[in-house]
Amino acid sequence: xxxxxxxxxxxxxxxxxxxxxxxxxxxxxxxxxxxxxxxxxxxxxxxxxxxxxxxxxxxxxxxxxxxxxxxxxxxxxxxxxxxxxxxxxxxxxxxxxxxxxxxxxxxxxxxxxxxxxxxxxxxxxxxxxxxxxxxxxxxxxxxxxxxxxxxx
Length: 152
Fold this sequence. Notes:
Elements: E1 2-4, E2 15-17, H1 22-30, E3 40-47, E4 52-53, E5 56-65, H2 67-84, E6 87-100, E7 104-112, H3 115-132, E8 135-141, E9 146-148
Parallel strand pairs: 2-6
Antiparallel strand pairs: 1-6, 3-7, 4-5, 5-6, 5-8, 6-7, 8-9
């Protein structure tokens, strides 16, 4: 989801198939280099960890979501964030499908005139995503077993 203040009222898709590639992250950052009213960006990158769970190593997470509900929840989070903080723009992408350990599964990028606004808004968005989006992760183990992941 790429959002600026001029198009913030539209519900956007935030989902991408598989991991979020570094090229997508770089393109989002590069697109703002000419916007001279922006003084700060804050970025959160969620990465799949190779956790050890009961002696088994996580090889990947397979993400699924109730997409219409998740997009509507993200829309509410975005609207609330723009209403609370003076942001120039916001980009949010979340993976669906298999994401290998070490790969990026969540990208949140906010821009504002001042750093504290960017810091606070970015944290608010990430915490809102974790608390309110119906996105589910199934941890896939190296031994081919799996379990449903709980958000922490």
